[in-house]
Amino acid sequence: MSRNHVSATVNGDQVEFLCETGQTLLEALRDELGLTGTKEGCGTGDCGACSVMVDGRLVCACLMLAVEAEGKSIETIEGMASGEALHPLQRKFIEHAALQCGICTPGILIAARSLLERNPDPTEEEVRYWLAGNLCRCTGYHKIVDAVLDAAREMRGA
């Protein structure tokens, strides 16, 4: 099989990798780049565990081919914190105990950050709607929604 050369920006760093034609972005992130924070939950785009940002758009990495990442800017959970300083969403998820097993958490955090970048003052209904594509099997969504709303308040300086 021939391998394809891909050059992209991942979490602000220029990267290059080789991938098979049918390899997903999720597989390339995990297997070629060692970025294992992005999880596979379903492989069909239904659970949101593999959510990443591609050129500012929220996508399921299990549904995008790695070759489509050529020239794109990709943001994963590994790029969310600033060094040792957690992003406000990450801190609030810990404070509100909004995570358990951790499979869904990276995707939910990426999706929540995407929401807050577009709408810094969402209602509870808007948070629930925006995160509807992210499934969690361990915890109730109430703590997740509370954590997102609390992070939004902090990020707005309210």
Structural class: alpha+beta
Main sheet: strand order = 2-1-5-3-4
**CA radius of gyration:** 16 Å
CATH superfamily of the largest domain: Beta-grasp domain
CATH topology heading of the largest domain: Ubiquitin-like (UB roll)
Instruction: State the name of the first-level CATH class of the largest domain.
Output: Alpha Beta
Mean pLDDT: 96
What is the N-to-C succession of helices and strands?
A: EEHEEEHHHH
Whole-number total of structural domains: 2
> Total number of β-strand segments?
5
**What share of residues is helical?**
25-40%
What is the annotated CATH architecture of the largest domain? Answer: Roll
How much strand?
A: 15-25%
Distance between the termini: 55 Å
Largest sheet: 5 strands, mixed
Report the total helices. Answer: 5
Give unreliable regions as ranges: none
Task: Describe the model.
A five-stranded mixed β-sheet has the order 2-1-5-3-4, sandwiched between helices. It has helices at residues 25-32, 88-95, 105-118, 124-130, 141-156; strands at residues 3-10, 13-20, 51-54, 57-60, 73-75. Strand 1 (3-10) and strand 2 form a beta hairpin. It is α+β, with helices and mostly antiparallel strands and 158 residues long. Helix content is 34%, strand content 17%. The model has no long low-confidence stretch (mean pLDDT 96). It folds into two domains: 3-79, Ubiquitin-like (UB roll); 88-156, Orthogonal Bundle (DNA polymerase, domain 1).
